[in-house]
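Troubleshooting: if your tokenizer reports a length mismatch, compare your output against this known-good record of 969 residues.
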Amino acid sequence: MQKNIFFSVLGFLAMGMVLSFMSLFIFQLKVDKDTIQKIQEHSTLTDNTARDWGVIPGQRKIKMINKFRVFSYENNQFRLSEEQIFSYNQEFKNRTYISNSPGYIKYLPTFWFQEQDPTQGSDVNAINLVAAQSFYKEVNQPNLIKIPRYLNIMINSLKDDFLIYYFTYTIYEFYTKNQRDVQFTIFNPAKLTPEQQDAIWDDQLYGWKNQNTFVAWVRAAFDDDGSVLKDYFQLSDQQINVLIGPASIISKMKRLINTAVSFGIIQQKIGRCKSDMCTNQELAIAQWGFGGLTLQQYIIPVQAQGGSFATLNNSIPATTTDYQFEYFINNNPLQFDEVVKLFNDNIEADNNLFNFNTMQYVTDNIDNPDRVRYKLALFDNDLAIGISNYLKKQMKYINTQNEVMAYECWRFLSSQISESGQLLRNGLYAKALNYKTKGQCIFYITFEGVCDTEYDYTNSTTAALLWVDAYFQEDSTAGSYSKLLTIVDKEILDEYLFGQSEFTKLLSEMKTSFSLQYQCSYPTSCSLNEFIIKQWSSSFITLNLPQSLGFTTQDKVKSISQWDIYLNKKLVPFEYNVVIGSSIDETKAQSLLKYDMGGILGYFTLWNLFDFHFENKELHKDFQVRDKDAKLVAQYVVYQLTNYRYGGIIVSAKPKEYLFDFSNKYTKEKELWPPLEGGINWKSTNVQLIRTNSDEYYNFAGADDFFQLDTGIKDLSKVGTIVKTFMETKLKAKRILYYNDESDFVTQYYYYPYNTQVSGSYGLAFEPQTSKNKLEIFDLDIFKPIQVDYIGSEDYHGFDVRKYEFKDQLVGLQQVEGYPIYVSTGVPNDIACIDIESQTCLKFLEKQSKTIYKIEEKTGIAVDIQKNYIYWLKVDEKSPLLLKPFDKPQYIPVAQRTIKYQYSKSDMNNFFSDIQSLKTQQQAYFWIFLALGLLFFIAFVGFLIYYFKNKAKLVEPVQSRYSSIAAEV
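Known-good structure output:
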């Protein structure tokens, strides 16, 4: 071969090889550029790339499918209920692009559930979240709510308890301790028999000779209710009216004291009451502000050491260096007019300490006397400093769980025990009435057409209870009297119930029989209080029924909740021995069922009991039960709080209702409470384990509470990151605490219920082409940041995806109410939980699937999410749910929630096909030009080998004749 031909071919092959590889490089660059452009189009969160935002732009049709299973407590163990399936829609509403930001939008995340299965499912018996949420909601209330509430308790304590003790002391010292004066000026005009006079004077429970028992008569005069005393001493209406009625000496002395205080305030030129006679409210605030009743010389002085209410009544804490009940102690006294303004009847008044907004401002500026003085319209800064220091002491004092426990129990316990006593007494009489009159309707019921009807008490105890309720005429039984009026005229009915009918004669005989059977203080009748104490302490009443009235051994029960006439009421046992399992001495029972220190009916005495029970602090000396017995009493009270007040440890409900909007008697009652009593007349008090955030945000969030999200416009590596809410780096919420639609007065405040930074992706968009081993996600289903770890890559419907896993852990969810709800994934190490489905909870958790995220490799978009969360309620040492069968601190399972979000194969092809085609095109270009380049390369190498093997054989090209001639020339 001629050399020139060889080298020409070799040059051509080299050129072809270079061009092939250059073309491969150029086409790869083009495809990479096209891919980046497509990734930008797919991954950037803008309206330019998608007009219709769903969970991600353009993908509203892909929904998160939620499946819920509630843990139902059956046969002493928890089991999972049947599934409740919901599709979960999410939309980014009210998107606004933030100018001068690195590509942020602000938006409201709108979530709503759509039930796929219309059936409600069978009832579940689940742990009572009402008890936990209601209790911890009170624990976590801000000072702007707690302080007005506590001040309200204080003023009411002064208005009610203090004034009763104060008037009792004053009237007793003034007048009634002299038996001779009482006999001539009170007892004789009341036409009391000598026996009645002796009984009223000497009685151990209600006697006039002792100030501590005389207080019952003053309290009855205050409350305008002498029914208990009238019944106890068998007094007529006229007699009880002379003793405590409007014209009685007690009432006259009360008016005299009120007038004297009013006149004294005017004389001192420190203000004036609204009228010539101060109201009880005015007397109370006068005592709080300047010791108007214990320090001033308005009447014969009732001097007390330090001048505090505590020296007259030990049901409130004594003054210490760290605590004071009334303001004037350790502070300069306030003027009466100033105190009146601070405790105005209108809680919306701007300088009222009951005003939540005012208290919010004061507590926020408590170290700034100028601002406090201005807000409260005080005379000078010294008063502002005094008020601030006083409030600081109260804030420090009341911010405990024990105070909340005491407050919650104090609200209901006395009324529960009183109502239970009425049910006991009325049930006794109803049963006896039926037994004694059985088959004698014509003799006892003289009304035509009543026999053999639902009103025939000779036929049934239920009908007998109707008549007995009407006879005793408590407010709780007023409906019975009204019902009887439908069959009998009022005049005739009153004569039958309260006159000289066979019915009243029989009930009078019963009263004597019961008094004899139970050895009551008064021979002709047992008082309601005696019934309560004897039954509460040992079930003595229902275990010792008088056979003379027709009772048999079958009637004997430990609790009135077991009586057939009350089965439909589903009563909670109020008897101490039934709840605790052991009886208590009647004397100790009597000391416990009172408001004074050492009892369980007063707010401060309950607080002391719980301090002892939970913190082992010193128990007040007036408690007759000590050590272990005192702790048993505390357990009894907590039992009533949970079972009577909150509705029990376990509640029955439909799964959907339980998960999204659970209510019971307690929550419905609470909605009606006034604000200072703990009610919220704006937001429902129903319990929601799973929140549809659209409701929460639209009702309570303002324009400044939108999330901010990085769209990736300026930095695609940050696409999908939730940056913060407006001006905050933590997730905040706005709570409406009080709203009056008539005045538009509203109380609201911001707080941080989740106590965590807002960081990480919103969970459906990540940095494209990421190689990170860990991803941060702000999970909007639980409102918590989580971290998922890379565990490998795999094929998903023909596309490459990266797989991440949420490692085993327990995550606390500080929900809006702040109660201890947690979620777990996998098998956390730090969870002590109750057995589930006949196995340890850890074994149960080991069988649960993991939480997995699959991310499309090119775009960073989540295409397959599988979440598996278990919701838990933490029952700690102070939880109201720490009772049998859950009588040790542990985690109680609430619900299982699985969430699936998946692209189908067609979704993947529709959404990522253009990127996939670019990938296919890139591969085609690669192989074509690589093949050409390799062919040229092989040929080039072949020619080089041929050259070195045949170098000697290569000949010079034959010289042309024309070139030779040219050379010669």
